[in-house]
Amino acid sequence: MLRSDAVVRARPGPDEALSLEAALDLAVREAPLGIAVVDRDFRFVLLNAAMAGINGRPVEEHLGQDLRVLFRGAPGLEALVEVLGRVLETGRPLRDVVLEPGAPPGQQRSFRCDYHPVTSGEAVVGVCAFVEETTARRDAEQQRDAAATREHAARLEAEAQVRELTLAREAVAEQRAQLRLITDAVPGLIALVGKDLVYRFANETYRTWFARSPETLIGHSLPEVMGPLGYETVREHVERALGGADVKYEVVMPYPTGPRRVRTQLMPLRTRSGAVDGFVALVQDISAERRREETSQFLAEASATLASSLDVDETLRRLATLAVPRLADWCAIELLQGEQRSEQLAVAHVDPARVSDAWALRERYPLDWSQRFGLPEVLRTGRSELYEEIPEELLGRTAKDDAHLAVIRALGLRSAIIAPLRARGRILGAITLVHAESGRRYDAADLALVEDLAARAALAVENARLYREAREAVRKRDDFLSVASHELKTPLTSLKLTVAALDREAGRVGTPETFRARLDRIQTQSTRLAGLVDQLLDVSRMSAGKLVLDLEPIDLAELAAEVVQRFAEEAGRVGTTVTLRAPVPVPVVADRQRMDQVLTNLLSNALKYAAGNPVEMQVHCVSGPRIRVQDAGPGISPADQDRIFERFERGLQTHGHPGMGLGLWIVREIVQAHHGRVWVQSPPGGGATFEVSLPPEG
User: Fold this and answer.
1) CB-CB contact of 691 with 606 (8 Å)
2) How far apart are CA 371 and CA 530, in angstroms?
3) What's the pLDDT score for residue 16?
4) Which end is more exposed in the chain, N or C (fewer Cβ atoms within 10 Å of the end residue's Cβ)?
């Protein structure tokens, strides 16, 4: 029968012998999990310090209290009562229940809970709850210091209770059974070890980890149970615990059922006189947690490696090297080169000297595409293959002859994964990972990791292919522009000569004004067409990196005056006045023809959008030669101010203004070739100012 005032009490005895009941009580109270027992009326019957810390109330405020009254109005109370009621009603445990009580942003707490029915005979008389807080590690570390204070207070209180209370043997027996139930349900090892290193108690989890019942451990020593290697791993920590220190550590332990990474706490057990009589061990398996962290870190490094270059061969070599030895002893990456044709592009091994052996073996024994297993099958079907253990029969089916079989056996292959490189529905190749010398084995979790890695590698390979194709398309386009521009030059030159001859003939014989006006329009359009062809030629040269500068000392102010004079007639035709402010010479070492092109394009652009408003060009020297062209046109939106300098790009206010969007791009390319820069400023309300800055030395 459950009682709200029930406690664990030590059996009277000499100071040198600590009772099993007291040890179990200490294990419950000191467990890192929150543990509590409530009866059918939802009253707290038993509570450890960890649970009190989670609830934020002292132990004494819980015992005998109805949790519905004690936590009235608390976030998550209704969900908790519903879960406890379900266990009381069904008599079945509920595991891995996640509770997340509401809280202000940044203060959300999360708990993973197991609920087990407590029975007396066939009746369910209560619920035992195991609660693990899973809030971020940062929050857990902040709470650890506070928990230590609560733990100390709880320990002092519990020791006082043990000294003060002397209940009947029946109550002790009942509590002993309940404690056994609780410790057996804890998802970790709990053990009581004496100062002679002999096991006095072990919970049910030992059956899973050691493949033997916990009862068979009692009376045997740590070195016997753990083996020489296992005991040597923890010997230093055990000695510190027997010296009276609370010990916490993480380590990889070689258990009989396989290695596990564990987080362990060793707490000294003391007699009433204060002498250390042994310790309680609490051990949690954190292998999955660490594996997730290591997997995330590896995939992040792999992604960085895959993104570091568009050279497929080099990228795959780096990836293979990254995988060894963290994921494999051997790593090989294969890419398809056509129908039943592939090439091994990368090989890595823990011993770099053996890599050449792998290349030689592959050259001597190429892939057998008739095989319906292994690498050929993965390349054919795109389905991964996992070999947790590589059987001898598989080696025999793979080998081409006895010599080949002998070589394969000598490699000592133990376990393997072959995963396809698949991107956008296409099989691009495969990655093969093998464990050999290390003796490690792959499992389903490793397969998921390798498939993720293969997907990232495939995407990198596909992106590199698309990049190569895009560059080839750009090269072909530029070649076409270059050829087309040169081909257009010949008929344009002939057209301009013909128009000039007609103009002279018209002047000699006398012609109507309408005829001369049409000749002028032909001349204007042919000049404009020639300019467009020149722009296409510039696009071709600049895209191919063939812009060659003929540098010489020039006066930028004088050149600007020539350009402004050349535009006088056009400015008058559109009703715009062009003002040049260049009072003094501005010497610079530059390509005269290209700088003429810069000034021409900037002034032409300003006249196009000035709409009859004045245009001003200024050439001066401020920490180097500067060109400034200002118009009072519609202006340029902030979103367009960088974009208009790109190839074939134009501002959103260009409706009704013809052009290919190359003039400002050509300006930028020429200015940057002179180690200068160009930018635009356009305040709200209209108008634009283009500025060019050249280095003092030109």
Assistant:
1) no
2) 65
3) 43
4) N
